[in-house]
């Protein structure tokens, strides 16, 4: 009996530190953020409770700068997410299928593809800012491509998409490789005996077998892409003409980027973004479950 009591404390020992970190760095800031969204606050004086005024201004006051910022930022964020999420799922999945065939130097290619994920966003932007430079970038010098990748559309969005896919590809790739390696060999061999092609085996056996991993990566990738910030900030600065200025940039600028902070308004924008992310994630989950039937 005493040994069982001793063992029962081990889960708490392992989970406890993670729960403390979750509460301190996620739950508490989230609760504070929700409260601040109902206030007028400049980060220095005491917050003044104003109810739903921030949300009304953002959503309905068409003459307000914050209304314009929110809808322009949300439009750009949605545009990026709609294009990037399918690519950030499909490309790693196709590469994982190729790697699951155990080609020569598989470990090398897997390591090379995963490596960018380990870089900080600042380092990634320095690398790609140099590569894409219109003045002295290697892409211009080697290939003779005279394009302003960060100052003209659609090249600004294309550059952000390429950088994002390159930087984040490794995470989903590792998940898919591990999942595909777990597909029962007996099913694949039986399908081969029945004369099934590689495409048929992928859609009939492999894909259904990794559906849980697909759901997880789709939802997590969607959340990440809706929170895009570093790529447009450091690559295009939100240009040209605010066409790549995403909502997270407006949220940060209003809270910390000007002499007069409007933290309450920024928090309200962040809450609205969180609601949109939650709705989209639930919709994705429901649609994926329906496709399984």
From TrEMBL:
InterPro entries attached to this UniProt entry: ABC_transporter_permease (IPR051393), MetI-like (IPR000515), MetI-like_sf (IPR035906)
Main location: membrane
Compartments (UniProt record): Cell membrane
A GO CC term attached to the entry: plasma membrane
Keyword Protease tagged: no
Domain of life: Bacteria
An annotated GO BP: transmembrane transport
Record keyword Ligase present: no
Domain ABC transmembrane type-1: 74-284
Membrane-spanning residues: 12-38, 78-100, 112-131, 155-179, 214-230, 268-288
Keywords annotated in UniProt: Cell membrane, Membrane, Transmembrane, Transmembrane helix, Transport
Record's bilayer topology term: Multi-pass membrane protein
Annotated PANTHER family: ABC TRANSPORTER PERMEASE PROTEIN, INNER MEMBRANE ABC TRANSPORTER PERMEASE PROTEIN YCJO
Family, as annotated: Belongs to the binding-protein-dependent transport system permease family.
The protein's name in its UniProt record: ABC transmembrane type-1 domain-containing protein
Phylogenetic placement of the source organism: Bacteria, Bacillati, Bacillota, Bacilli, Lactobacillales
